[in-house]
Amino acid sequence: MYIVDEKDKEYRFGDSGPKYLMKGPRMNLAIVQFQPKQDFKAHFHRIMEENFYILEGEVDIVVDGVVNHMKPGQFIHIEPNEVHYCINSYDQPVRMVSTLAPFQEIDKVEIDNYTY
């Protein structure tokens, strides 16, 4: 058992990206934040499934070319091998919970020049 306080962790890119509260041994759990007009490069996972639960703001999560406009209280599940891309096209920051399981140290495959 352990306890983590979000304020003791940092976002990967300063004011955006994932802030991992747990990495392994069986899953990852993160708070993800994007400022207006920020995005996260398209990618997929070979083994891990990924979930997002929207806490605040709005975000477009593109999965295999389909744009999913997500709002607070909504949840999206992304299967392994589904290409996904997140972009905050809106005027407010977005905050969401992300889980990835089963834990893999290296499992992300980035997609260059992604279009949808």
From TrEMBL:
Domain of life of the source: Bacteria
Q: Where is the Cupin type-2 domain?
A: 31-98
InterPro entries, alphabetized = Cupin_2, Flavonoid_dioxygenase-like, RmlC-like_jellyroll, RmlC_Cupin_sf
PANTHER family linked:
LIGAND BINDING DOMAIN PROTEIN, PUTATIVE (AFU_ORTHOLOGUE AFUA_6G14370)-RELATED, QUERCETIN 2,3-DIOXYGENASE-RELATED
Q: What is this protein called?
A: Cupin domain protein
Q: What organism does the record attribute this protein to?
A: Caproicibacter fermentans
